[in-house]
Specification:
The structure holds two protein chains of two kinds.
Chain A: E1 3-12, E2 15-25, E3 30-35, H1 41-48, E4 56-61, E5 64-65, H2 70-74, E6 77-80, H3 92-101, H4 109-118, H5 134-146, E7 152-156, H6 164-179, E8 184-189, H7 192-198, E9 201-206, E10 209-215, H8 216-219, E11 224-231, H9 234-242, E12 249-252, E13 258-263, H10 267-276, E14 281-288, H11 289-298
Parallel strand pairs in A: 3-8, 3-9, 6-7, 7-8
Antiparallel strand pairs in A: 1-2, 1-4, 4-5, 9-10, 11-13, 11-14, 12-13
Helix pairs in contact in A: 3-4
Chain B: H1 3-16, H2 20-54, H3 66-89, H4 94-99, H5 101-105, H6 112-146, E1 151-154, E2 159-162, H7 168-192, H8 200-218, H9 222-225, H10 261-288
Antiparallel strand pairs in B: 1-2
Helix pairs in contact in B: 1-6, 2-3, 2-6, 3-6, 3-7, 3-8, 6-7, 6-10, 7-8, 7-10
The chains are: A alpha/beta, B mainly alpha.
Chain lengths: 304, 293
């Protein structure tokens, strides 16, 4: 394992931001770190980077403890924590050059420019950062993380505040870093759709605790779905489905929708079955079960 | 990572910031105004000041010369320079925390202790450069405008005359001492900047401490007299000791003499210990600090 987090806990007074969290990242994979805002993602990332001290637990990167071998480890790590704040009075090039010098490696001017080119800022290199858009700052922040050619890249909510094109650019950059440059990337987000598109594995946390961890394609199994049905007769629908072979689970959502756990191939049969029993269906929405679960967390309405 | 690289980067950041030049501009403006004032009305001012002496002494030569001007300017400015020092030193950590760049800095393989030492050395270099700038304006330009002659310093109970040939080294020593005094202010401001996320707090706190300590110095009460020797503000004007000369039995100045060298050295020692104390405390605090900005 390239990164191993073991029983990590961080408390601020009586508030526990991260609670006994464990997960591991393999070399070469894109690892998604998913959770609502305030779930403890940034606190965890700050601990990984030794910006804050854990209350309990351990962090090993490249087989070394971050507590004991901080500088050695950070030579091989590039990171952007939350929004990339840079020196506003300096140009993009100057900013990148300052951080490149701090990387303890000899990085030539050409390499700095190449890095700016990689994030599409080479033509704006001489402009002061104070005139950069949010998206440009985000890309420069990523350039700061990449400039010393690290093995592990940690990006904390890299698409925050970006427009759709900016989000797509960052996504493509992450995929390129992983597929072409064989980098290991830990990327955090509060959006499942973002993680789904780039990550090989992921962990979901809520209130500082791990909810689920695994391969994305297994967790987001397209065969397992949750149906969200709005009808004119919910009690009858529940009776009918309770006696059917398709419903693996059945419950009401807080906003009076019927939620049914089933399989993807059963959806048309189930819909036909309800129509044959003269049920008026206003809406029938199929979601992946993990997506439904995550949505229930982000909306703050946990399913029964 | 080499400490010299950190110092270079920190100096680059200091001198790329527009606020850095406020201090240089302020010193040039204040010194220029004082020089202009004395150039225009200095003679009548000096006549007024010499009134009480003219009955007892026959004073010849250029009293209002560059050396005296530099002494007047130093006395005036060293009260205000701490604010200009705190402007930069108080921003060294808190400014980075405020901008959010501190966390980005600490994702790089830089040891926290080295970062603090590097930043402190950079802010010290700024302090020394600022004092050199002040020396150029206060001394070199004053000599250029007013010329050089023996220096006459009036005190409440005596007049000290220092020969022109014996003055320059005293200024070099005085500016060296002033640099140590200002480094103490810089170290205090730097230390306070660890606890804030904007630079206003440390700047205000530094000035408040200096004001409170200075007031304590002026109160002649037994309870305060006990602590006065330990307050750095009690020693900040120790540079004046270089202008107290001893005289021989004929009341002639002994060239190269300092009336109370042990007191000057004691003051320098107290200031130096404060610098070391503030810097060590900064390293200790920063090494354990959670970066939440």
């Amino acid at each position: 394992m390239l990164l191993e987090i073991s029983h990590l806990t961080k408390s601020f007074g009586s508030f526990t931001a991260v609670d006994d969290l464990s997960f591991s990242v393999k070399e070469g994979e894109v690892y998604g770190f998913l959770g609502q805002n305030g779930a403890g993602k940034s606190t965890t990332i700050r601990m990984i980077l030794s910006l804050i001290r854990p209350t309990k637990g351990s962090i090993n990167i490249f087989g070394m403890s971050i507590e004991k071998e901080r500088e050695k480890i950070l030579q091989q790590v590039g990171a952007v924590v939350e929004k990339p704040d840079l020196y506003r009075y300096m140009t993009g090039y100057e900013n990148l050059n300052v951080f490149a010098r701090l990387s303890n490696k000899h990085i030539s001017k050409a390499e700095v420019m190449k890095c700016l080119e990689l994030v599409g800022l080479d033509k704006r290199a001489k402009d002061p950062v104070r005139v950069y858009s949010q998206g440009m700052k985000q890309r420069l922040g990523i350039a700061v993380a990449l400039v010393h050619n690290p093995s592990l890249i940690i990006l904390d909510e890299p698409t925050n505040g970006l427009d759709p094109q900016g989000i797509a650019d960052i996504r493509n950059l992450i995929l390129m870093l992983s597929k072409e440059q064989k980098k290991t990337v830990l990327v955090s987000s509060h959006l499942l759709s973002e993680i789904e598109q780039v990550a090989d594995s992921m962990v979901i946390i809520n209130k500082g605790k791990k909810l689920v961890e695994g391969r994305v394609n297994e967790l987001l199994n397209p065969d397992k779905v949750q149906l969200e049905i709005i009808t004119d007769n919910n009690p009858l629908v529940k009776d009918l489905l309770a006696n059917s072979v398709w419903a693996k689970g059945l419950r009401n959502s807080p906003d009076q929708k019927v939620l049914v756990d089933t399989t993807a191939d059963a959806v048309p049969l189930l819909a036909k079955y309800l129509v044959e029993h003269h049920i008026g269906i206003s809406s029938l929405r199929s979601m992946n079960s993990l997506e439904a679960y995550f949505l229930s967390l982000t909306s703050g309405n946990e399913v029964e | 990572m080499r400490l010299s690289s950190i110092v270079y980067i920190e100096l680059y950041k200091i001198f790329r910031k527009p606020r850095t030049y406020i201090a240089f501009g302020a010193i040039a403006a204040i010194v220029g105004l004082i020089q202009l004032g004395f150039y225009a009305d200095g003679e009548s001012y000096m006549k007024f000041g010499m009134q009480s002496l003219s009955d007892s002494f026959d004073v010849n030569g250029n009293i209002m010369n560059g050396y005296l001007m530099a002494f007047i300017i130093l006395q005036t400015l060293l009260v205000h320079v701490p604010l200009l020092i705190a402007l930069v030193a108080g921003d060294m950590i808190s400014g980075e925390a405020n901008q959010g760049t501190l966390r980005l800095l600490l994702t790089k393989p830089v040891s926290r202790a080295n970062l603090i030492i590097g930043k402190f050395i950079a802010s010290s270099i700024y302090t020394i450069v600022l004092l050199l700038w002040m020396a150029v304006w206060a001394l070199a330009i004053s000599i250029f405008i007013f010329g050089a002659d023996d220096m006459l310093i009036m005190k409440s109970d005596m007049v000290t005359q220092i020969l022109a040939s014996d003055v320059m080294w005293r200024y070099v020593a005085a500016f060296g001492f002033a640099a140590l005094a200002m480094l103490t202010v810089s170290a205090l401001s730097f230390f306070l900047s660890l606890f804030a996320e904007n630079s206003i707090g440390p700047i205000m706190a530094t000035m408040s401490i200096i004001i409170v300590f200075t007031i304590l110095n002026t109160l002649d009460l037994p309870i305060f007299n006990m602590v006065k020797p330990y307050l750095f503000t009690s020693h900040m004007l120790g540079w004046k000791g270089f202008f107290d000369v001893t005289v021989n039995e004929n009341n002639e100045q002994i060239i190269g003499s300092i009336e109370n060298l042990p007191a000057v050295l004691l003051s320098a020692g107290v200031l130096f210990l404060h610098v070391i104390g503030f810097l060590s405390a900064s390293i200790l605090v920063f090494r354990r600090k959670d970066i939440l900005s």
